[in-house]
Specification:
Layout (H helix, E strand, L loop, with lengths): L2 H24 L2 H18 L8 H27 L12 H16 L3 H11 L5 H8 L3 H19 L7 H6 L6
Helix pairs in contact: 1-2, 1-3, 2-3, 4-7, 5-7, 6-7
């Protein structure tokens, strides 16, 4: 017997049970079939010549489980980072960008001088809270308060959704404060 014959026999005999197992994990027949096929290929490539194929089903089941877990991790990582991609459809036109800049400038003018200074240093000069505190001769707590108040006022002035966490606005920039 050739290895091709052994592989075909294994897939024919154990394939439906393995797909059933994978379907329980995935909830989808097409995904289950893909996982089983990938797992059989991986298992068969690790097969030693002359080895008994009874170990193969256990190996394939484990490979299906690992493949499913890996797929879930990849999907979760994608969901967690997909928002970082720029969507050309969401990019405003030059006219809209000009209006947005004008609205932001107008909203900044309505802030108190300290709120405006903290906001500009934080978001335009990319300074951390300790750097802003040193530059403005304020305590770090005062800077955080000015940033928080400014973020809250800007969200109202610019019509940002009420469920926006204003703390995120004052602590953006890689988590630096």
């Amino acid at each position: 017997m050739t290895w091709q014959h052994d592989l075909a026999a294994f897939a024919r005999e154990r394939g439906p049970a393995l797909v059933g197992y994978a379907r329980l994990l995935t909830g989808d027949t097409a995904t289950a079939e893909d996982l089983v096929q990938d797992a059989i290929v991986r298992a068969w490539s690790r097969r030693r010549s002359g080895a008994d194929i009874t170990w193969l089903e256990a190996y394939v089941r484990r490979a299906v489980l690992n493949g499913w877990v890996d797929r879930c991790r990849r999907e979760r990582a994608w969901r967690d980072h997909a928002h970082l991609l720029v969507d050309d459809a969401a990019t405003p036109s030059p006219e809209r960008a000009t209006v947005d800049r004008a609205q932001v400038a107008d909203a900044l003018e309505r802030l108190s001088p300290r709120e405006r200074a903290c906001t500009v240093l934080r978001h335009y000069d990319d300074l951390t809270v300790p750097e802003i505190a040193q530059r403005l001769d304020l305590s770090e707590g005062a800077v955080k308060r000015y940033l928080s108040d400014a973020a809250r006022r800007l969200s109202r002035l610019l019509g940002v959704a009420d469920d926006l966490d204003t703390e995120d606005l004052s602590t953006t920039n890689g988590g630096r404060r």
